[in-house]
Amino acid sequence: MKITVITVDEQFITLDVDPEESVENLKALLEVETRVPLQQQQLLFNGNELNNSSKLSSFNVKDGELLVMKVATAAPSRVANNDLNINPDGSCVNPGAFQQHVRHDSNMMTQLLQTDPELAQVILGNDLNKLQNLMRDRHQQRSHLRRQQEEELALLNADPFDVEAQKRIEAAIRQKGIDENWEAAIEHNPEAFARVVMLYVNMEVNGVPLKAFVDSGAQSTIISKSCAERCGLLRLLDQRYKGVAHGVGQAEILGRIHVAPIKIGDVFYPCSFMVLDAPNMEFLFGLDMLRKHQCMIDLKDNVLRVGGGEVSVPFLQEKDIPAQFLDRQASDSDIVPETSGAKEVKDNIPTRGQSSGTSQGDVTQTPGFEAKVTKLVELGFSRDAVVQALRISEGNEEQAAGYLFGG
Asked: Where is the composition biased (Polar residues) (predicted)?
């Protein structure tokens, strides 16, 4: 709002102020315009004097109102000096008086503009609250620096043969190196301190749209029980593939859905899933399907290319990822199985043409079994996964490879 102030020499000064502005801040603005010290100003509205600590709105000062400024008798110099004092927390006793004192000292302002331009700009501004906050920050910085210097001095004066003192010196040197490394990272690699958002893309599973977490460090493609039910796939759950998935943590494998259509971009692809009882994870597009459909994670263009590049879908920006996914991101690694170096342990996995619980000759004892294991392990799979695949395929190397690749 705009208000007009008539001064003692009958000048009219129009100011643009906030209704919630304090009277003290208004006087500070008038001090800039009239050169009348804040302490000597008296502001009258409708015959009533406005108190420094009150807000304009409390006196019902509205847009277009007229205020009268009078000059009171100058306060004793002792009071003026007290107004320049600093509180224990570093803030000014009288921020308006301190601001004007520094402004009128040309040598001090020149020094501030060279050594602390941030503080100089605040003093030249009109926001006294910002000045107070900055003064408190400067006080905390000085206190922290002073404590560090005292600790360093104590270490220098310590007994060189004192084992505990040597340990403190060693810790101080190590911390100094860490601080220098941190400062270098802040300057040259600031993005390292930002949160890394995982890779998500829009997909459709059995016609149901969802946001898939793309994870090349997960061996298998995974869908949660609730998500599979929402997609109408739970009826296809093969419970013969129950087991326990071990990664950073572990989760129960409820079974396997052998094939279902997923839509990436405008193209449909067949996909198989492990169904987990993992409420913190909805759908994870793992390495098995990434390999099967020749996917490429293109971080330069920020897209997932499928089918050797026939389809490209962009990775979602952070604003497009549901908040619950971001909140759970830190804990997902504790429950998502098949992370790099992890293995999946499946119980009760039937062999072809055989029901769960039936017995069969151990294919691990057949001739050439170890050679097959070695060849499949060289493709990047763990030995346990290869052995399980060969058991399922009754020792057929090609069928085991197809199973491992998600075929």
From this structure: 351-365
